[in-house]
Amino acid sequence: MTRWSAVVLRRPWLILLLAAGLVVVAGAWGSTVGDRLGTGGYADPGSESMRVERLVEEKFGRQSPDVVVVYSAPPGATVDDIGPRVQAQLDTVDPALLSRPVVTPWNTPPVAQYLRSETGDRALALVFAAGDENQRLAAYSELAEHLTVPGVSTELTGFAAVADSVNTRSERDLLRAEALSLPLTLVVLVLVFGGLVAASLPVAVGVLAILGALACLRVASSFTEVNVFAVNIATLLSLGLAIDYGLFVVSRYREELGSADPAVALTRTLATAGRTVAFSALLLVCAFAGTLVFPQASLRSLGFGAMSAVVMAAAMSLTVLPAALALLGHRIGAGSWRRDAFGHGQARAARFWERVTRAVLARRVLVATSITAILLILAVPVLGVKLTDIDHTALPAGDPARVAVERVAAEFPAAGSGVVVVARGTDGRGPAALDVEELRRGIAAVDDVAAVVVGGTRDDVTVLKAQLMVPDRSQPAMAVLDEIRALDVPDGVDVMLGGESALTADGVDAIVDRFPLMVAIMALATFVLLLIAFGSVLLPVKAVLVAALSLGATFGILTWVFQEGHLAGLLGVSTGPLAAGMAVLVVAVVFGLSTDYETFLISRMVEEHRAGGDTESAVLAGAVHTGRVVTAAAGLLILVTGAFTLSSLTPMRFLGVGMIVALVIDATLVRMLLVPALVALMGRANWWPWGGGEVRAAKRPRKMGVESLA
């Protein structure tokens, strides 16, 4: 960092123009990423259910409609009365948009009974769009225009309708979040720094980081499916982390300006806060890299979006921001309402943190045990956590696409995907007719199975469909899967299960199976990086354990709210099993943020110890010097990511509430109380084996306590 600071001091204008220009050009190109987003990718491509889907499509054509249309007859009329009008309207759909004709009870008598409600006043039409998934989604708007029948109540649902609603809401929510968070963040930064110039720098860096992250996602979209939620995550994390990193760097620079000229102050800032930002970014990248172990494309794209945000936030904070500081020098304080506004605020905050930390040090055993107990109690609901996949319940309760999904599930249960059963002969030939009939009878005897239809035989494959009396993806539907798998299969026959319920079950199983690997990667990477950064064995171990406690407490609260339903009405969210994919992302975010802020706190303690202080003075100095800025950083990140909670989409609210809970726990119970108490309890063992070495930062007389900030 010392060499880099010399480069920055020599060529600040060049660095500023090159970095900003590159990011702006890349961001303009990356702004087109919205046209390449998908809402799928939640299935495990190597799972049995996906193999069934590919095999059935290969042999019999695609079986799952893209759009399901619910037509309701006027009061006193039946679907027979509206049939001619509806069918005439459907015949106007451009055949080029369809992979096969629209299926209705009026043009396909063999399935008419499944496409009519028992009351006879509603009917379904199944629409199969042409092309790959992105082409089918792009065609939805044009299809929707031709599917609406004047004078007949029309509701659109199915994968394409739900995806379109999710995309529209996601884009609208993101614009609203940015419009709210940016000005509020600037106001808070003005209060923290006491001036407009210093406050505007982190916000400017945040905007550049957003542009860079969007460009990264645009690159990723050329190689893999990028989930629509990845843009929201990349945008808000870029802004939040860039502001956090900018806050740390600018605060340290202003602190150093109190005892050195601008050039020396910048060198010291990059050698301390800059180095810590780099390590912090590495920790977060390693945490989010854990999502790459999962087979689902959606999870990998969410992780890549988060990693892009971290890398761009750190890169802008270590290039553009130092160059701007080099150009500003003492003018960083311009626009302050009083000359000593920053120093006055620092000194006042330092007195508070000194009182709190001295109280913790005086009762370290009590504090450590009581806070640990509180976190463990908060984590208890995790023991009953249940997982599922993202579906129509991601939409708010009144959304038309969700209402239509629930209507179809309630009134047309046989029209759901049910359980698709593929039977193949082990000798390379199709299963015998007697074996197929035996299998059909066995499946039909399972609870909640309404009927079993033999779909046909092609080559060595016979397909059966079990129509269920319960909604797809529900817990009773999952129980049906288990019972079918437990059936005795005729000799010489292999059986595989597919359908929406099987896809969900296999996707969750893949996440559960690989979750320990993700945790191991995060923990090991954190340990190694902190070992390198601090030269201590116990400090990284403590960081991992404290992060695990914080993670458990956060998920306990999330389970209590989103699964058990407490406060769900206040938050306006759907309750039920947690979305496994978003849960994985929250794990990475919470673990990363927990170690991130601890890095800033512990690095200041290590710096003090290497300068000659004992353990207690190191704890005190670390808390006093970082208390205000880390608390402000957590508050700003809550402000930015809290915009997730304003989203109308439950997965985004889940992420937003999770981050707010994690940050509040970290800022109060963990960093203010638990970490200082544990470091004090470990004493000299904190610094074994290399923690007592000389600090790498530029040397200066060591100052202690509040007087150093006054």
Can you walk me through this structure?
- By secondary structure, the chain is an alpha+beta fold.
- It has three domains: 450 residues, no CATH class; 92 residues, 2-Layer Sandwich (Alpha-Beta Plaits), CATH 3.30.70; 81 residues, Alpha-Beta Plaits.
- It is 63% helix and 8% strand.
- It contains 23 helices and eleven strands.
- The strands form four sheets. Strands 8-9-7-10 form a four-stranded antiparallel β-sheet, sandwiched between helices. It has a three-stranded antiparallel β-sheet with strand order 3-2-4, sandwiched between helices. Strands 1-5 form a two-stranded parallel sheet.
- Strand 8 and strand 9 form a beta hairpin.
- The longest helix is centred in the N-terminal third of the chain and has 35 residues.
- The chain is elongated, with a radius of gyration of 29 Å.
- The C terminus is likely disordered.
From the structure above, extract its key features:
710 residues; Alpha-Beta Plaits; 3 domains; 4-stranded antiparallel beta sheet; 23 helices; elongated; disordered C terminus
